[in-house]
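Section 3.1: Structural characterization of target chains.
Under the original work plan, the team committed to producing a structural model for every single-chain target entering the pipeline before any wet-lab resources were allocated. The record below documents one such target. The sequence was received from the expression subgroup and is listed exactly as submitted; it comprises 325 residues.
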Amino acid sequence: MIDNIFANARAVAEENGLLGIDRLNRMADAASPEEAFKVLSEVNFGEGVAADSSDYERAVEAEERKLALFIREVSPDEKLKIFLLAENDYHNAEAIVRAKYLKIDFSPMLTAEGLYASEYLKDKIFADDYKSFSPVLAEALLTADNLFVSMKADGKTLSALFRCALYKELAAAAKSDKTLSAIFSAKADAANIAVALRARNIFECEQMRVTGGTLTDSELKFLCDENAESIKEKFRYSALKAFIDRAAEDLAKNRPLSDFEKYADGYALALLKKEKYSDEGYRPFLRYCYYKRAEIKNVRIVMSCLVNGIDGGFIKERIRESYEG
């Protein structure tokens, strides 16, 4: 197993190749997608797989695969590896199980490989052989099989099934680790706040609620039932105030939780940046992984907006927490 010292050294070296907020802002201010794409070439983003801005998504996907490979090869702890990569596996497993029954090509739906190679996932899932998977993933796949066989499978039910299973997996990986537990708890709370404010129905919310976080049953019901001002007042002195205020403001303005999601997406990285100069344990490795995740998401946001002719000022408002150098 790779130790923390080696993993941290590799991560610190990789930080030198990050875009950083200054370059992201230059991209947002660019006169065209082509001009923004040139900024990516300064750090060899995508390693040359995309020839021009029209193919920027290939560059983004290449960076996603590169990060996943880095985590698999360099992570100093198995639980840390699971925490960082399980989401990829659950996404891909869901795509493959849908293809298994709907007789469709799953390859366009896949994201970067996590702990399992996509071909391995495909072979095992199509063969109904789940013994080599974690108990949580195996149970989710078996439940999905039963839903399809009983003609009860639909997109919403399947998405909720695999999302809830993912959070169980993440909760187990984060257990007994102070940093991962803090990141996971906030992630679970954010997921449940979003579910409640989108569903606005406690019965539906209970079906989609994920494991973890600090929200109580009564608080979740309150989020489902009350208006924005009542919600803000209820959580006025809560540790979740920063999350709730943004979510309630989006609710009041009848917008799709955009500011809330921006804050929630950046919370883990903001937490890690408070310990920017700490090299305790695996901190530099974990911090780099979140820097890179944020960079990939931000590039996708900026390029997508530019291709669709969206103003640079609006784009900057959508940029997530990122590397500052």
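The chain has three domains: 1-76+282-325, 79-176, 177-279.
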